[in-house]
Amino acid sequence: MASLGSLKSEIFRREERKQQYQAHILGLNAYDRHKKFIKDYVGFYGMEKPSQVKLPIKTDQDTLREGYRFIRSEEDDMDRSWEQRLVKRYYDKLFKEYCIADMSHYKSGKIGLRWRTEKEVVSGKGQFICGNKHCDEKDGLASYEVNFSYFEAGENKQALVKLVVCERCAEKLHYKKRKEKEQSERRDQEENRKKRHRTRSDDDTDYEESKEKKRKGKKGSASASENKAEEEDDHFDEFLEGMFP
């Protein structure tokens, strides 16, 4: 039979564990409490091992990524859902005079543009400092109006925006068009070279045909002269036979 001291210690330990469990539960939010209760229920009463199921959670960043528009339309402003109100508040905090460019893939003609934040406006980034995201050049800056073509919300869109960049980044900005122009010029030069070659070949062919015609003409004249000489010899022989029967 258990002694009185052991019973007291067992009761004390139970109460202590109960208080710890309650304190742990009270320290959780509603979602974490729900997950713990489900986990405990499956662990104690379930026939299978509990599985860690992660439910999809939509954060504010996900909402901004889905609803953000580079240039908002009147239809976007008419939507009064909380998601669009959140996106509108973020959009209104941007400064939409100059853009910031990401030229990481400039060789393929893919340049990303976005509006400036308040921190970038205060530091002068994009206006007094090169607008390339990875460039901090302050000298030799020039402003360009860029026809920004982009794909957004299942549509192809265009916008005319301002971008301030240095000379080195300006070359990156026009790299794709310059390469396309050089390739077009090389194709034209190659096509002109082929045309000149074909023209020269045709001239050579005409010249050879002319020479062949002249050669054939000379042969025909020589044959006619020979035939005429033979006929004259025959007539001369007949003449001699008539004189000396």
Describe this structure in words.
The chain has 245 residues and is an alpha+beta fold. 59% of the residues lie in helices and 16% in strands. The protein contains 8 helices and 4 strands; from the N terminus they run αααααββαββαα. It has helices at residues 4-26, 30-45, 60-67, 74-78, 82-92, 118-123, 167-173, 175-243; strands at residues 95-105, 110-116, 142-152, 155-165. A two-stranded antiparallel sheet has the order 1-2. A two-stranded antiparallel ribbon has the order 3-4. β1 and β2 (110-116) form a beta hairpin. The chain is elongated. The chain starts with a helix and ends with a helix. The model has no long low-confidence stretch (mean pLDDT 79).
Sequence of secondary-structure elements: HHHHHEEHEEHH
* Strands in their spatial order, largest beta sheet: 1-2
Helix content: 55-70%
Residue windows where pLDDT falls under 50 for at least 5 positions: none
Key features of this structure:
16% strand; 245 residues; 59% helix; alpha+beta; two-stranded antiparallel sheet
Short description, anyone?
This protein has 245 residues and is of the alpha+beta class. The protein has helices at residues 4-26, 30-45, 60-67, 74-78, 82-92, 118-123, 167-173, 175-243; strands spanning 95-105, 110-116, 142-152, 155-165. It is built from eight helices and four strands; from the N terminus they run αααααββαββαα.
Any chance you could write out the topology, listing elements then pairs?
Elements: H1 4-26, H2 30-45, H3 60-67, H4 74-78, H5 82-92, E1 95-105, E2 110-116, H6 118-123, E3 142-152, E4 155-165, H7 167-173, H8 175-243
Antiparallel strand pairs: 1-2, 3-4
Helix pairs in contact: 3-5
